[in-house]
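Form 7-S
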Amino acid sequence: MDALLDKRQRPVSLGGDHSITYPIVRAFGSKFSDLTIIHFDAHPDLYDEFEGNRNSHACPFARIMEEKLAKRLIQIGIRTMNQHQRKQAQRFDVEVFELAKLPAFEELKTWCPVYVSFDMDVLDPAFAPGVSHREPGGISVRDAIWHLHSITGAIVGADIVEYNPKRDVSQLTATVAGKILKEILGKMVLECMCPETSLKAHEIVT
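Output:
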């Protein structure tokens, strides 16, 4: 990852559970002092530890914020907050937008470099049943796209995680994941073409 960033490329990682985001963002944190993470998820993934594991898929954003790898963490679509994670969100000044606080279009306007972490279970299971931890009452695909399009900062990297093909129905979730990938890449390509952005020379690697 360091080698890609040194070449001014913008990597997009696909697959795996959310534990992969922490080591990926460690590379970004060393390159971007003002990084903003925009995190789409049903779960805040802020546990200090989960089942004895501090590097669990339920903990990556606690590790990221502990190490000050990002200046801001904005979470969209959260609907499983418990008391411990609320305290963690307060501790790290996380900007949490649960379902009742959506849409959050204005809050996604930033001129800092942006890393997007998209957990497929942010979507309602009607749109994305192929995930390991289904949480009814999620956002629609259209809602997700509207929020992605509201991001104004240059997207310097992204991941799409938590797709589980064993739980997919007629490859519906795979199709939706492909659509989300297309929208993220589309924004990144437009940023490359836009003369106003300082990151126009970056390349995109998936």
